[in-house]
Amino acid sequence: MMRDYIYKVYGGILAVLLCCPLGQGGTPPTMMKDPARTATALAYADSVMRGMTDEQLLAQLIMPMVFPKEGTKALQEWDHLVACGFGGVLWQKGTPERQLFLTNRMREKATIPMLVAMDGEWGLSMRLSGTIRWPRNIVLGATNNLATAFEYGRATAEEAKRMGIHVNFAPVADVNNNPLNPVIGTRSFGSDPQQVAKLVLAYGQGLESQGVLSVAKHFPGHGDTEVDSHKALPVITHDRTRLEQVELYPFREFIQKGLGGIMTGHLTVPALDSSRKAASVSPTITTELLQQQLGFEGLIFTDGLAMQGVIDNVGKGSVAVAAFNAGNDILLAPPHPQKALGELLSALKAKKIERSEVLRRCRKVLAWKCLLGAIERTPLPTQSLFADLNSERSKALCTRIYEESITLLKNNEALLPLSAPKNSALLRYGDAKTPQLLQLLRSDSEVDNYAIGLKSSATERRATYQKLQKSSLVLVAITSEKARPDAGLLQLARDKSVVLLFLTNPYTALHFKEVIAEAKAVVMGYDSSVDAQTAVGRALLGQLPMSGVLPVDLPPLFKAGAGIPLERKGLTFAKPEAVGLNSQILSQIDDIALEGVQKGAYPGCQVLVAKGGKVVYSKAFGYKDSRKKEPNNTTTLYDLASVTKAVATVPLLMIAEDEGRLTTKDKLGKYLDFLKGSNKESVSLADLLFHTGGMPAVINFYLFLIDDESYTSPLITYRHKSGFPIQIAQKAWARGHFAYLPTLVSHKQSKEYPLRFAQGYYLHSSVREMMREEIRDAQLRSRSYRYSDIDFLLLQEVLEQCYQMPLDQLFRQKLAEPLGLERLTYCPLERFQPNEIAEGQKDQFLRHQTLRGDVDDEAAAMMGGVSGNAGLFGSAEQLFPLLQMLLNNGTYDGRRYIQASTVRKFTNARHPRSPYCLGFDRHRGKGKVGNVAHSAPLSTYGHTGFTGTCCWVDPQNEIIYIFLSNRVAPKRWNGELSKLKIRTRIQEQIYKALN
């Protein structure tokens, strides 16, 4: 009866309200611009309100804060809170499992569904354990990359949705222009209002792209204060002109771009409200300025109402009533929600708050619940929660943010990047440890390690500085905000080449002015997390560019926006837009590459895209190993497999032709005595390059290494049956036991057995001659196209005969060393550690081990890992200069390697029966099956490799695309990479970004 009475009395008010917009008039939030969705949301709100009492209406405007605790008492308290009908919940610190359990319980029991909110300025990790540790916003500000900020918002929104969260109290729109600010600091994107506004918009749009409400805070701007509003009330003393230019600017942009939520702050701004009321309880600021003047129509939340700043400001009155009358829609986290509800109810009855406003705001809140999906009651899945909240895609993005943020502020004498410095040391100055940084530095050279902690005594400090006198270069990693320089550090900077690495809040640098003046170089890494240490270490070694900018002013040292761009060693980088590519579309390559990791197409991969000679995308995904214990990076070496043909053998043939040592018209018999008198004597080099020489596709040379008496024939079967336990291909199985001939295979390397087949397997020097005999005696087929590895074994023989030099030495001398490609090599284990190389197949058949640094291809392995068809190892970034040289028609970095006419001849040649150029695979034609994306021009050439690799050169658009993976780890017959079409889908994405 009571409900009917209320609705009858106030039916006239409701009828008017139903015809009004949710807000006061202005720019409608983007989430409300679809008329059909908005009409549905309003209809939902109206249907719910018809049965609500005054208490229920008011309860919808209160959002308590709850810790997701364990235990019977906590569960009872939660059930009681849900039964009270409050409008939502703000979860505090806890575990994802418990919070999800309580959220599901609420979805089941709440009479009116509740909005679920989080304080996720840096994702769930701000409140929930066991989730990805995202960086503070100041790190994102240092990237100066709006596409990255959007992806950051999108990723944190995906985390939120997985947990049933509808509202994120982020982004922080405060312009932090006061270094002494005790509460905002690194939560802000920076001190430049225009740049803060851009990042706020990008982050907020990323959140809302996934249907999670973004909430800009703390209106009208909490950046320029030295008071923590949790403890007292800050005062912003600037005049209106300054407030418009700085504090209000990001909020104005946020509103004009149609983002959906704003949080009012507990701070007083006399220029905006002479009564000195806190903004959160000021009708002048919250209603007149925010809603009427700025036209904000979205949801308005107070900051937490238990904060001392607002409690002191209101005094003896009700904070809840004051916040309601100011114009806020949702009263956040009052210390006693039931008491706040009682105060609102009493005020309504006493006509101290307007009933029409109660109805309007309740309707608004309920409509937003519908828009945000809060009315959904289906339980959220509990399985795979940890995996879902720690996705490879998000981990890769987190790594990327740190990599893009590294900021070089000083670099006297071009000291950075480091070049294998001798006699160097790392001094950790502060309490946070730096093991990842040290490990990376030691991968390049010997580095001594020292530490001075906050509590180190004067005696300990003197002893450390004395030891450092023997070092010529000292990298000082400052890891604690409370760290302060001493006289010893200043003297060290005067005596030695010192690089200061700030792995902490950038404001810490203000205490090191004198040391910075003496230091040779200064790098800002922003915090001491694993990702930050790794990014700083790689940037110091030239493995990453330093492209970050300082997001805040550090007077008088550096201004916001400072940053010395430093390219990666040997590579030139550019933003995609600088070369005509769309960075947001290009960034979607991340999703495709990570899909391959998640669906088991490969443990990890590298992707590189370049245009016009500039690298615009270079990333590593997943892991080096199939156990997923070793994170991948862009320096990891991959077995390039048949890509070796296109980037080693063919360029060397071009050079040999330029030098007059051979021509492609030459016959094999001219160079190879072992083929004279055979049916292969008259096969030309061009025939081999076109794959029209009639050679067999492969020859299983390894069979002559095996003792025929050691197993019952056959050795291999092509259907699964007893006695053949080892799978070696999709439809092939082998015997489990056989013996190698001891005359050909030894377990120890020696002069007689020099050829490494794998660890613990070495082949006799006569094996190479036996392989030649097998090739000589092999049957020739018709001269139609048939792709063959044998073609390139013969081309290797020709090159080695012409130069009287092994192929690996020839490659190093003619290409790798001149191009500076230290990590593009045959036989990588001679120069690199196994953990620098991606894991290969688990070979249970021939080599009885997991390959790592030994070539997958058996023929190449039998030649000691050096072959014309396979054997080269490298990274995408090391492969790029060689391909760019080809794209440049034979030149790179001012040096000519191959004549332009020769490059054009090899890459443009056509054969009536072959899809190949001279040695390069190419676009087969629109609609035809091939290895190139259909969107690529017909002039595109390159190669693919068995281990999951490819490289493509597009002369028309000056694009280079490289994809490297270890899809054979651990199963060589893993076909998911091809099934998912990962390589061509990524290439298609490049052309979408181009168009």
Task: Outline the structure in words.
It is a single chain. This protein has about 1000 residues and is α/β, with parallel strands linked by helices. It folds into 3 domains: about 1-385, Glycoside hydrolase, family 3, N-terminal domain (TIM Barrel, Alpha-Beta Barrel), CATH 3.20.20.300; about 405-570, Rossmann fold (3-Layer(aba) Sandwich); about 605-705 and about 740-995, Beta-lactamase (3-Layer(aba) Sandwich), CATH 3.40.710. Helix content is about 35%, strand content about 15%. It has 35 helices and 34 strands. The strands form 9 sheets. Strands 2-3-4-5-6-7-8 form a 7-stranded parallel sheet. Mean pLDDT is about 95; it is low at about 1-25.
SSE blueprint:
Elements: H1 2-9, H2 11-18, H3 35-49, H4 54-59, E1 62-63, E2 65-66, H5 72-83, E3 88-91, H6 96-109, E4 115-118, H7 137-143, H8 146-162, E5 167-168, H9 193-209, E6 213-219, H10 240-245, H11 249-256, E7 261-264, H12 283-293, E8 299-302, H13 308-314, H14 319-326, E9 331-332, H15 337-349, H16 355-371, H17 385-389, H18 392-405, E10 407-411, E11 424-429, H19 435-442, E12 447-452, H20 458-468, E13 473-478, H21 487-495, E14 497-502, H22 513-518, E15 521-524, H23 530-540, H24 583-586, H25 589-598, E16 604-611, E17 614-622, E18 638-639, H26 643-658, H27 685-690, E19 716-717, E20 726-729, E21 732-734, E22 745-746, E23 755-758, E24 761-763, H28 767-777, H29 790-803, H30 807-819, E25 825-826, E26 842-843, E27 849-850, H31 858-862, E28 872-874, H32 876-887, E29 891-892, E30 895-896, H33 900-908, E31 921-922, E32 941-945, E33 949-954, E34 959-965, H34 976-980, H35 982-994
Parallel strand pairs: 1-9, 2-3, 3-4, 4-5, 5-6, 6-7, 7-8, 11-12, 11-13, 13-14, 14-15
Antiparallel strand pairs: 10-15, 16-17, 16-34, 18-28, 19-21, 20-21, 22-24, 23-24, 25-28, 26-27, 29-30, 31-32, 32-33, 33-34
